[in-house]
Amino acid sequence: MADETKTPRRIDPLTLLAGLATLAASAFVLTDGRIWLPSLDPRWLLAGVAVLVGVLLLGGSLRGKRK
Q1: b/e for 19-45, b at 16 or more Cβ within 10 A?
Q2: How far apart are CA 62 and CA 64, in angstroms?
Q3: Which residue stretches of 1-67 are H helix?
Q4: How far is it, in rounded angstroms, from Cα 8 to Cα 61?
Q5: Virtual CA dihedral for 23, 61, 44, 12, nearest 10 degrees?
Q6: pLDDT digit of tens for each residue in the chain (67 aa)?
C-alpha cells in the first residue's frame, strides 16, 4: 500500500488575489460600470493594486530560498 503522508494545504495568495480581481471585474461589467462608491476614483484603486503587487513581488524576491 502506498504511504499516505498528507501535506497541509496552504492558501496561494497570488491565486486568491487573481480570483478577487476577476470577481471585481465581473461585478463591474455586470453593473454596466456603475460604481456603488461614488467617492472612489478607479485610477487610485488601480494605482493601489499596482503598488500592492509590486510590494508582494519585492517581498517574494527577498525571501530566502526553500530547500
Answers
A1: eeeeeeeeeeeeeeeeeeeeeeeeeee
A2: 6
A3: 13-30, 42-62
A4: 24
A5: 20
A6: 556 677 777 888 888 888 888 888 887 788 777 766 666 677 878 888 888 888 888 877 777 666 5
Q: Which amino acid is at 11?
A: I
Residue whose grid cell is 500592492: 52
What would the grid cell of residue 36 be?
Answer: 456603488
The C-alpha cell at 43 is 485610477
Q: How many CA atoms lie within 13 A of 61 on its CB side?
A: 6
E strand or H helix at 35, and its extent? none
